Amino acid sequence: MVAGAAAVYALRLADDCLVLSHRLAQWSSRAPTLEDDVALTNIALDLLGQARGLYARTAELDGTGRSEDDYAFMRGEREFINCLLVEQENGDFAATIVRQLLCSTFQLAQWQALTTSTDGPVSAVAAKAAKETSYHRDHATDWTLRLGDGTDESHRRMESALAAMWPFTAELFESDAVAREAGALGVGPDPATLRPEWEGYIRRVLGDATLVMPESTWTPSGGREGLHTECFGYMLAEMQHLHRSFPGVTW
Amino acid sequence: MSEETPAPLWEVFIRSKRGLSHNHVGSLHAPDAEMALRNARDVYTRRMEGVSIWVVPSAVITASSPDEKDSFFDPAADKPYRHPTFYSIPKEVQQL
After folding, report:
1. What's the pTM value of the predicted model, to 2 decimals?
2. Which residues contact A223 (CB under 8 A, 6 or more apart)?
3. Is A33 on the interface with B (CB under 8 A)?
């Protein structure tokens, strides 16, 4: 029995959504075309909505009654427990697409399992999120096929993006006391159980895109304990500075 | 972003609800039809504008030319008998 496992579990889900949302929002006005700009920021907004629902539920579960803004803007780097993959820098368009493919495939499997969560509010968020994330995965899949099986240059960029992002995927499926407890309580799946489905889909898409599924022996981890990669601090500073400079600011 | 030629142009038609016809809403760039459909979903249906989308390559649309306005459209101007306005409508008909 882990005290507050459900709250920690929900916060992990929420932080994954918020951080990935902010990374995608950074593409705003910078994407290759207007159409991609709108697509990426639409996805960012979906993720932000998912994060909000989960922060609201976390505040009830951990008993602090914090607001969504408190979670997003008033916690330090060490207090965020998102996985390392979502915080990785956007890089070029290929890197963002690879990160999206790896993340959204994981999140879709997770949301689908969460629709039967014993926690009512979490399963409600999951029901809506599963539809949204299904589109996110389609979007990433389409681009992966086109860029992987595209020109020499696009193929090369996808290969190097895969090599850069792949090591961070191991952490997605790590199990620990919190994850096992959540699984036992029926709050949500132990991430370790999602691996076969994730791997099957990724393998198929990469194969169709003429890309090779990388193998990595370096498997960085620590996000769930608040130990992040260097780039995360900079992202957080950018995301939080306005709210911290002018607490409670609205416009 | 690059000096490459932009992706082909597509015209987007959206049906706002069942029973209505598709209306032209705008255009966008996409490398192929499938992506055009996805882009149309992202660009033109963000505010629940539709239940169905068509995309058509702009290149396959044959359009009338503004130069042909006189020969195309003016001749219809003085032919009021083509409008069904010379019938008296029975009172019993509510909807027409």
Report:
1. 0.89
2. A80, A81, A82, A83, A84, A87, A171
3. yes
